[in-house]
Design a protein that fits this description.
Length: about 280
């Protein structure tokens, strides 16, 4: 299947402000792109790209004083299958983990393993290790946190989400990541597009956050917010937590004036057609 995705974001700055944006599809999906991403800004400004230490494609720019709109659109091919699973996948002992996984066992800005370690073992220490234990973590987080857009807070940590029991998808992801790391299971935070393919339309279209967990020698997708297999995930960026992969990292104050995202299935004749209608979604 073909999935068209994109965004339109307007920010306002009092003075020229350097920014780094993580809005493009992850490097490991480049071969699946069928209509390359087109990125425009209003007003037109110079931009450059680079790949960060986590392998994410980053866009570097200086926003002028006043309003700046960033608009991007692309089409990707997807296999149309739900998230893969291996219910028999086992945990890998820490001593046998690849070096690259060790970073995802440690505490980070939003994932305070030191504050939740005992809680994690109290809750899940008797659950058989492997896929089932990770799913038990996601089941718990899904039940424990109430989803509420109006209660979003950019500074909320996993420990605070655990105690406040409210948040948005990033809070679900941070808490699940933290609990898995406390159990010596490598876990990383994901930003990306997740449309409503195969499910009822419930929420406004938005960027989504979920997690990937290392089991049986591979990284597997888990989604504590939705807690069900989904079709058509498009990874934008991976990191330890949201501090590593903000959609916009601003080196100075800015005001977010508007934010629109689209992700939907298309057919060949729609893959590269003008997308003006979706800009209002």
């Amino acid at each position: 299947m073909l999935i068209r995705y994109g965004y339109e974001i307007t920010v306002s700055c009092a003075q020229p402000t350097a920014m780094v944006c993580l809005l493009s599809v992850s490097e490991d999906r480049k071969s699946d792109i069928r209509v390359p991403e087109k990125v425009f800004t209003t007003p037109i400004i110079p931009m450059t790209t680079y790949v960060d230490s986590f392998g994410n494609r980053c866009r570097r720019l200086v926003a002028p004083a006043g309003d700046l709109t960033i608009w991007g659109d692309a089409t990707i091919e997807d296999d149309g299958k739900i998230d893969p699973a291996d219910f028999g996948a086992v945990e890998v002992p820490v001593a046998e983990l690849p070096d690259s996984c060790l970073l995802y066992l440690m505490g980070s800005r939003y994932c305070e393993t030191d504050k939740l370690s005992q809680t994690a073992w109290d809750l899940f220490g008797k659950v058989p290790p492997g896929w089932g234990r990770v799913q038990a973590v996601c089941d718990f987080v899904h039940r424990h946190i109430k989803f509420d857009y109006m209660q979003a807070r950019a500074t909320r940590t996993a420990f605070e989400a655990f105690n406040e029991r409210i948040g948005v998808c990033r809070d679900f992801a941070h808490l699940a990541v933290t609990l898995c790391r406390c159990l010596n299971i490598p876990a990383r935070y994901i930003n990306g597009h997740l449309g409503d393919i195969g499910v009822p339309v419930v929420d406004p279209m938005d960027f989504s956050a979920w997690i990937e967990v290392y089991l049986a020698g591979s990284w597997w997708t888990f989604d504590p917010r939705n807690n069900m297999p989904r079709i058509g995930r498009i990874v934008v960026a991976r990191g330890r937590d949201a501090a590593d992969i903000p959609l916009i990292n601003s080196f100075g104050p800015h005001v977010l004036k508007s934010f629109r995202v689209w992700t939907y299935e298309v057919f060949d004749e729609q893959a590269s057609a003008p997308n003006f209608a979706q800009r209002g979604r």
